[in-house]
Amino acid sequence: MAKIAKRIVKSREGIDPNKVYTLTDALGMVKERASAKFDETVEVAINLGVDPRHADQMVRGVCNLPNGTGKTLRVAVFARGPKADEAKAAGADIVGAEDLVEQIQGGTIAFDRCIATPDLMPLVGRLGKVLGPRGLMPNPKVGTVTMDVAQAVKDAKGGAVEFRVEKAGIVHAGVGKVSFTSEALLENIRAFLDAVQRAKPAGARVPTSSAWPSRRPWARA
């Protein structure tokens, strides 16, 4: 813990807490201060100024990052017959129906993204208390309840990130690795900002990529 604390303190050296940095400058500082022994994830957090307790202020969506996330996601698909075959051909790691439900109920959740065809949602609904808290429940709003399972699998594998506003009115997502070029990270962040902009209710604040308000540039795993 002491080593982690020292690393955090060191990463903040030279950063003025009263200054608003441009996105380009913030990314430069993040890359300069990356010190972990692994390829850290660059994460963006935006305070939207909304109250998610009100249904009309909920912000949720999905963003296809043009340069991917740098992570290898394991994708599970609930489908039968031809749709199951399509999911497998598209690269899904796990495909099933009742058997997959039993596996999950037994405590095995070996995937990072879950997709389902609409006809199997009554079956998947049994797993709400298990998948919901983990953010894995398929949802048509983010394209994970669909008949086009092949495209959904390709999107997930290709860098699609889901986002949802938290209790404090903040939405965040990993947008790449510190090993990415600054240009690649900029493209990903702009795509994320655009996606949040489209998903936000009227009155919510979304910063522009040319005037990034982050006062503490940072990277995390």
Molecular structure report:
The protein is of the alpha/beta class and 221 residues long. It has 2 domains: 16-69 and 160-199, 2-Layer Sandwich (Ribulose 1,5 Bisphosphate Carboxylase/Oxygenase), CATH 3.30.190.20; 75-157, Rossmann fold, CATH 3.40.50. The protein is built from 8 helices and 7 strands; from the N terminus they run ααβββαβαβαααββα. The chain has helices at residues 2-11, 23-33, 81-90, 98-105, 121-124, 128-131, 149-158, 182-199; strands at 41-47, 60-64, 75-78, 94-96, 113-116, 160-164, 170-177. The chain has a 3-stranded parallel beta sheet, with helices on both faces. A two-stranded antiparallel sheet has the order 1-7. Strand 3 (75-78), helix 3 and strand 4 form a beta-alpha-beta unit. Helix 3 (81-90) runs parallel beside helix 7. The longest helix has 18 residues, at 182-199. The protein is globular and about 55 Å long. Residues 209-221 have low confidence and may be disordered. Binds directly to 23S rRNA. The L1 stalk is quite mobile in the ribosome, and is involved in E site tRNA release. It holds the Pfam family Ribosomal_L1. This is Large ribosomal subunit protein uL1. One of its GO terms (cellular component) is cytosolic large ribosomal subunit. GO terms for molecular function: rRNA binding; structural constituent of ribosome; tRNA binding.
